[in-house]
Write a structure and sequence with these properties.
The chain has two domains: 71 residues, Beta-Lactamase (2-Layer Sandwich); 159 residues, no CATH class. The protein is 21% helix and 30% strand. The protein has seven helices and 13 strands. The strands form three sheets. It has a seven-stranded antiparallel beta sheet with strand order 7-13-12-11-8-9-10. Strands 3, 4, 5 and 6 form a four-stranded antiparallel beta sheet that branches.
Amino acid sequence: LDTGGIQVSDNISRGGLLPDHYGRDRSQRPYMCEAVPAWGFLLSTAYISLRAGRPSVTALQVVRKGDETIGYIGADFDLRDLPVTGAHYEESHAWRQIKGDPAIRGTVFQQCRVDSLMDKKMEPAIAILEDLITERGLFQAVIHFSSSRATVWFIDDPFRYRILDHEALSDPDICLLYPRTPYPEDALIPHEIVTSILDGMRQLRTADETLYLRSASINIFNGMISLTFSCDGSHYMSWREFLDKDMTFWLGSAA
């Protein structure tokens, strides 16, 4: 590349020359917009390549003639071809609030909660979910109160989810389909706390007719809870933060 970011050579790949890129303007590509360190070498942040549409990085070397910069040599790398040297990413437990669809937020006070099939049989649904979590290996659940279903994952088959509809969530016999499983010792949510968490979700579902809980999730291994309200706003937090808040706080935050 010249100093203006115009390519002055063909691309070179494992298969040979790629002449189509000669003369290409790369001045606005991410690696050309980063500040090159004083020593003349830059390893860019990751970006999406235009040619392959893949996450990539570019190594950029300044070419000098005496004290004058006359251009750059760039080498592009697909992230799939690079070794991972960092530690495994751990999801933060910090509270996160994410606003939802503006169209839904704009009409939230024009709507009113209508009892779903699950609402009408909330007590058995909560009891069944509690039993599945504490006694039968369910480690993650997304509970859709408005559409009366739960998407669930079990320890003995973690890569496949199952859907429990309102009929399953109102019939205790569903518990017999799943074998007794010891509550995992490395779960961040204590066994005895699961009941309180599910009861808190139940209260948020029925506490207000305008601002109400549409769906919620629980994962006992990372200790995280999520809540999505009728305004389409979502909250992600640790189980401790969830239980520390009262109904007044939640209904104010949902708005």
